[in-house]
Amino acid sequence: MVTEQSFIMVKPDGVQRGLVGDIIKRYEQRGYTLKGLKLMNVDKSLAEKHYEEHQGKPFFPKLVDFITSGPVCAMVWEGKNIVAAGRTMIGATNPQASAPGTIRGDYGIDMGRNIIHGSDSVESARREIGLWFPEGLAEWTPVAKPWIY
Ligand code: RTP
Ligand code: MG
Question: Which GO terms describe its biological process (predicted)?
Answer without folding.
Answer: CTP biosynthetic process; GTP biosynthetic process; UTP biosynthetic process
